[in-house]
Recover the amino acids of this structure.
């Protein structure tokens, strides 16, 4: 099977990889690029574990073909922190104990970052609505919502 050369930007850095026609962006990120923070929980876009931001749009990487990343700008969980400095969302998830097993955490963090980039002062209802596509079997959702609300307040300087 022939492969397509894909040139993209991932977490602010130029990246390129070869992709077969049916390769998902999730699999390309993990297997071709070596960014293993993005998780696959369902493979059908129902759990949000593989959430990434493509050209400022939150998507499930399991539903996007890798070849669609050509020329795109992608943000993954690996790009949330700045070097060794955690993003406020990451710190607040720790402070609020908003993670347990951690499998869903990358998807929640990327989804929450996407929300806060669009709306830095969301209501609790808006946070819950935005994160509704992400599933967690361990925490319930209250701690996650509280962490996002607290991070939003900190990022606004409130």
């Amino acid at each position: 099977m022939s492969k397509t050369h894909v040139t993209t930007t991932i977490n602010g850095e130029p990246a390129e990889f070869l992709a077969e026609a049916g390769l998902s962006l999730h699999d390309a990120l993990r297997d071709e690029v070596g960014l293993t923070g993005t998780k696959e929980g369902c493979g059908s876009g129902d759990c949000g574990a593989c959430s990434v931001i493509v050209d400022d749009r939150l998507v499930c990487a399991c539903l996007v073909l890798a070849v669609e990343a050509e020329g795109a700008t992608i943000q993954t969980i690996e790009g949330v922190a700045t070097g060794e400095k955690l993003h406020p969302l990451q710190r607040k998830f720790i402070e609020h104990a908003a993670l347990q097993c951690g499998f869903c955490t990358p998807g929640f963090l990327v989804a929450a970052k996407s929300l806060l980039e669009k709306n830095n002062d969301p209501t609790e209802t808006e946070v819950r609505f935005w994160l509704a596509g992400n599933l967690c079997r361990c925490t319930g959702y209250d701690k996650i919502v509280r962490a996002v609300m607290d991070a939003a307040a900190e990022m606004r300087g409130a």
In short: The chain has a mean pLDDT of 96. The two ends are 54 Å apart (CA to CA).
